[in-house]
Amino acid sequence: MRLMMRVLVLGLGVGALSVVGGAVWIFFYSRDLPDIKTLTVFAPMQAVHVSDPCLPAASTAVPYESIGDNLRAALRAAEGSEEGPGVLAEMYHEITGNVISHKGPYSWLISRTMFCAPSKNLTRQTGEIRTAVQLERRFSRRELFTIFANRAWFGEGQVGVEAASQHFFQREPNQLQAGEAALLAGLIRAPAYLSPFTHPDRALKRRNEVIDAMVAEHAIDPKEGEIAKARALGVVGRSVQ
Questions:
Q1: 141, 104 in Cβ contact below 8 A?
Q2: How far apart are CA 137 and CA 17, in angstroms?
Q3: Fewer Cβ close by (within 10 Å): the C or N end of the chain?
């Protein structure tokens, strides 16, 4: 009995030290986080020219309403099921009690764009998670979606839905048809690989996947989806590559 008690106490002690050590690691190695207040400009009340040192180009941020029904639905269909930070986030929750909620993956996707130099080490991942938690505390789901849409990289030198819509279709985001919106939303995963200018077959396949996802989520009806998939890509911008 005494032996079991000693083993139990030892186990609890080791567990406590692990939690404390993990907490110290998380907070010490991710102290210098990006200033999330700078993101308010990416969820504007009206269109505004924006520039961010971590983004590859300046752009115009537009309000949530100006993104349009089709493009909002396409972005959610294309990105709404993306996986978040996974196991590391669970560890962070165990240590701190904080959790990245089910507001969607946007806080996670946004946080990754706020660190200028790419990296996959644990220190960076921890910083990204802490930044995502801060974003969810500061912004609503609608604001997070708007920020994500206005910071997304579409390739061809285009940042944000306004620039991408004008470049690829010479239209405002809220004027895009379902298939056009699906094409743009699909580009975010791998803009160069899926470019409709250099890889139209890949772009078409990805566009149709997003259209199917929009139908599955009841954003458009099946007939509208089939009509959209039957259309050509319809891009009108000129490649800068």
A1: yes
A2: 29
A3: N
Tokens 């196991």 sit at which residue?
87
Nearest alpha carbon to residue 187 among 215, 170, 160, 207: 207
pLDDT tens for each residue of 132-163: 989 989 999 999 999 999 999 999 999 999 99
pTM over 0.70: yes
Token reading at 44: 């504007």
Eight-state DSSP code of residue 47: -
Phi/psi at 55 (nearest 5 deg)?
-105, 150
Q: Which of 41, 34, 35, 73 is nearest to 59 (CA)?
A: 41
CA-to-CA distance for 118 and 54, rounded, in angstroms?
Answer: 10
Q: How many angstroms separate the CA atoms of 20 and 152, rounded?
A: 37
Q: Which domains does the chain have, with CATH numbers?
A: 57-230 (1.10.3810.10)
pLDDT at 99: 66
Q: How far is CA 90 from the centre of its chain?
A: 19
Q: How far apart are CA 193 and CA 142, in angstroms?
A: 29
- At residue 121, what is the residue type? N
